[in-house]
Design goal:
Helices cover 35% and strands 16% of the residues. The chain is an alpha/beta fold. Helix 3 links the parallel strand 3 and strand 4. It is an enzyme of class 1 (oxidoreductase).
Length: 748
């Protein structure tokens, strides 16, 4: 086996798996491994290495309904081939880290599937697989120990590894990569002698009133300034948490708005028309926006907004069921605060808007080749998510106050700070600006800061329209997210709060961008109403190829959004078929008689009520049922979104059955949800699923709703489908999933 050869392979949808893989790859290079970093879909690049014998570390997430990420789907299909030789990977030694979310029913499905299939194809695991849960906020508790144990396992595997090579060299800037017990003790003693804290180095950031400082989460014995953190508890400083920046000696231009930055990046790209990505999104103009909930902006806990985007001249082609990625910026107040904290350590003559290039590597993976600090912090770096322990360890190096440094080291510690880390950072959802505000002596240079911040991921929303109904429009619906953390801190969603503020001029009245542009000031305001978007085509959440198959749609709350697109698509298709049929049955044939005289009417005939229902009478058309749920059907708290559209689809026959569950209405005090409505129609649903080939779609909250609906369907199959036992019903639904007749689009 070639000495110290390593392949780091990843499958990543949101960037987490890729970030971990890049960090591991950089560490491997520092440790003199011959390391290569590739997405799993580039597996063919490793064919010679696999034949010679190599070691692979695979980090892969699971997305959607047990699907592989887009950059690993070809590898997933390849290893699943039953024609593969049982000795295909006999020379491969590997390990797998799977990322998943226990809110979904297929937790770490892809990672576990890769692990199982590699074993079946002759590979041998040199280190146990680990599964990290993104849904509970405990990823670090799995990932950190797994990464630490990985290197010793690799050293054992590579007997020729140089002894002592596990200590990483110093990072640029003179930071120490190791912490001696004596230095920690000295700092603890210094902290004990500090009577007054250092004054804040920057203006105070407005913090949430219920946010608690770290000391409130520490046991008295550890909170004591005299406490000495044991050397074994202090992790080594990772040498790759540094990015090389080269600032350009150019005149500082006025910084464009976030929307302008995206436009500039798009113009500089070489993508063809219609091709848009997270790195090069399309700036879609907002045509209109409205509240779908009755209380509108007055509601604190439930505001749903519909926006219509103009995609004319974009070349975009989407299908109902597709999702749209939105690239939202960080709040201006956050960006300004973090920039102020780094201003003191910027090189002379450099400002937040000075362009720079970087040396690449994992630390700079989220950054474009050339940008400014303001652009990096506004568009590319995640300032909202709580920092991971390695980042806290690195920030500790930049605290002037010894007490603050000790506290950050404690949070980054291997075991002693675990409960404080979970309660202080994760449960409070502490953002990076808030962390810096609570540690006022911490002033990381930009080379460090940009290396610590993960990429700002796009947010995805289901398309709520059909291009058959309007080729240049794309509609979305979203809830303005507002929630309270376990510790009582009120939080808002980053993207939804930005979107709501962006379209506020259109929400305050019956204003549209058409009326807004009637004045010069309004024209400028309308130009600013752009949303950077790109398409994420669905892999399985799409309508059946033929309308002959029945559809059962279950979408409470904003989960109904893609089904509005489904129904709009079927309505537009029905109208088109009727018009085509009418066109074919009008005018004069060469035979010399008038077809209109025979069939009556023509292309211009007005549509009679229920005419789209008659559309079903030609080719057999399957029924379409929609189960929708919300709190209130009427009154100021009404949150029956898209009511007019639903009732319209029911009236014209596109929708066969509309069943709505209103959980807070009624005098019985018994809450009613969509699963209760489904149970009430169990016999009909069993008939559709078992005998008419119905497709079952579920969209919405994955924490409880999807599981409750799944359980209700099992009960229906047992009671009305003659299956006798739940095991048989489970097997039936599993078969439906594999045939993509039971499809979920759920989120946590």
């Amino acid at each position: 086996m070639p000495a110290r050869r390593l392949a780091v392979l990843y499958g990543s949808q949101t960037g987490n798996a890729k970030s971990i893989a890049e960090t591991l790859h950089d560490e491997a290079l520092k440790k003199d491994y011959e390391s290569v970093l590739l997405p799993l879909n580039k597996y063919k690049n490793l064919t010679p290495s696999l034949e010679e014998g190599t070691v692979a570390v695979i980090i892969c997430s699971t997305t959607g309904n047990g699907d592989p990420p887009e950059n690993s789907d070809r590898f997933w299909r390849f290893i699943k081939k039953r024609t593969n030789s049982k000795t295909l990977f006999s020379n491969l030694k590997y390990t797998v880290l799977g990322l998943g979310d226990t809110n979904y029913d297929k937790f770490c499905f892809v990672g576990q599937g890769i692990n199982r299939r590699l074993l079946e194809l002759g590979a041998s695991a040199f280190y146990p697989m680990a599964c990290a849960d993104e849904g509970t906020g405990t990823m670090e508790e799995t990932i950190e120990p797994w990464l630490e144990g990985l290197w010793s396992a690799l050293d054992k595997l590579h007997a020729s590894a140089t002894e002592g090579n596990t200590t990483a060299p110093s990072s640029p800037g003179g930071d120490h990569t190791d912490v001696e017990a004596s230095s920690v003790s000295d700092e603890a003693a210094a902290a004990a002698q500090t009577d007054e804290p250092q004054p804040p180095a920057s203006p105070v950031l407005e913090l949430p009133p219920d946010l608690k400082p770290l000391d409130g989460f520490l046991p008295d014995s550890i909170a004591d300034p005299a406490f000495v953190l044991p050397e074994a508890e202090v992790p080594k400083l990772r040498s790759n948490l540094w990015v090389s920046l080269t600032f350009e000696p150019e005149p500082v231009e006025e910084a464009p708005a976030a929307e302008g930055l995206w436009v500039r990046r798009r113009r500089a790209s070489s993508l063809a028309e219609g091709q848009y990505t997270a790195e090069h999104p399309f700036p879609a103009r907002v045509r209109a926006a409205r509240y779908l909930t009755a209380a509108g902006a007055a509601s604190r806990d439930r505001r749903v907004i519909h926006i219509e985007l103009d995609i004319a001249r974009s070349g975009m082609a989407y299908e109902p069921g597709d999702a749209v990625g939105v690239r939202c910026p960080n709040p201006r107040a956050w960006v300004d605060y973090v920039l102020h904290r780094t201003a003191a350590v910027l090189p002379p003559g450099v400002t937040a808007d000075t362009p720079f290039t970087h040396g690449g590597g994992a630390a700079a993976a989220a950054l474009p080749p050339r940008c400014s600090l303001r652009e990096a912090l506004t568009l590319h770096a995640d300032l909202q998510s709580p920092l991971r322990k390695p980042a806290l360890r690195a920030l500790a190096e930049h605290c002037e106050d010894a007490g603050e440094r000790r506290r950050l080291l404690l949070l980054a510690s291997r075991t002693l700070g675990n409960s404080a880390y979970a309660a202080f950072l994760q449960e409070q959802r502490l953002s990076v600006p808030e962390l810096l505000a609570l540690f006022p002596s911490c002033a990381p240079p930009p080379e460090r800061l940009l290396a610590l911040l993960p990429p700002l991921p796009p947010r995805y929303y289901s398309v709520a329209s059909s291009q058959l109904a309007g080729p240049d429009r794309l509609c979305l619906a979203f809830s303005a997210v507002r929630y309270t953390t376990k510790s009582g801190v009120e939080r808002e969603g980053l993207c939804t709060s930005w979107l709501e503020a962006l379209v506020a001029p259109l929400l305050s009245s019956a204003t549209t961008t058409s009326t807004l542009t009637s004045t010069p000031d309004g024209e400028a305001a309308a130009a600013a109403l752009t949303v950077p978007i790109f398409l994420r085509p669905t892999k399985e959440f799409y309508l059946p190829g033929s309308p002959r198959w029945p559809c059962i749609l279950v979408g409470p709350g904003t989960g109904v959004a893609p089904f509005i697109g489904f129904l709009e698509h079927r309505e537009a298709r029905a109208r088109r078929d009727i018009e085509d049929s009418a066109a074919a049955a009008s005018g004069c044939w060469r035979g010399g008689f008038d077809i209109e005289a025979i069939v009556g009417g023509g292309c211009g005939a007005a549509e009679a009520p229920g005419e789209l229902a008659q559309w079903r009478q030609g080719e057999r058309k399957g029924e379409t049922w929609l189960f929708f749920g919300c709190r209130h059907a009427e009154g100021p708290g009404c949150d029956w979104i898209y009511r007019e559209a639903m009732e319209g689809f029911k009236a014209n026959g596109v929708l066969s059955r509309l069943e709505c569950a209103f959980s807070r209405d009624g005098d019985s005090g018994q809450k009613q949800y969509v699963q209760h409505k489904m149970a009430a129609h169990g016999a009909a649903l069993a008939q559709l699923l078992l005998h008419e080939g119905a497709y079952l779609y579920i969209c919405g909250d994955g924490n409880d709703m999807a599981r409750d609906v799944h359980a209700a369907v099992l009960d229906i199959l047992v009671e009305h489908g003659g299956m006798g036992a739940r095991d048989a019903a489970e097997a039936f639904l599993k078969d439906l999933k594999e045939r993509r007749r039971y499809v979920l689009d759920v989120w946590s």
